[in-house]
Amino acid sequence: MALLSAADGRPGALLYPAQVSSFSDAELESLVAEAVVDCYDEHEQLSGLFAMIQDNLAVPFDAEVLGVPVVVRKVDLRSSGIVAICHRGRLRQAVGILDLPLPDPLPDGVQWIEAYRWWVAGS
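Above: the chain's sequence. Below: its structure in token form.
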């Protein structure tokens, strides 16, 4: 999988290309609306989306990060955004959920990651 430069042009910053969503804009907008109902600002919206991912994403699941097999055991909310906590043996690493290459077949609840991706792109 080819790596792309960060959108903000930071030298040396690499991100995986965006997943190709099979969800329509209307479906993603509806999911985001469900997650952010009664939210007053971006921080509350982020928390709402995190809660939906945390509640609906089927973990654990296997993934591969930079060619290394890992197990995604949970998601977390950090100052940088929503991250997947990836384990390999006794080691663990937080990876931005939008940078995580998702496995095939996709885990249940992946639509909430795509809704988060859609929300980030629109904010």
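The longest helix spans residues 42-56.
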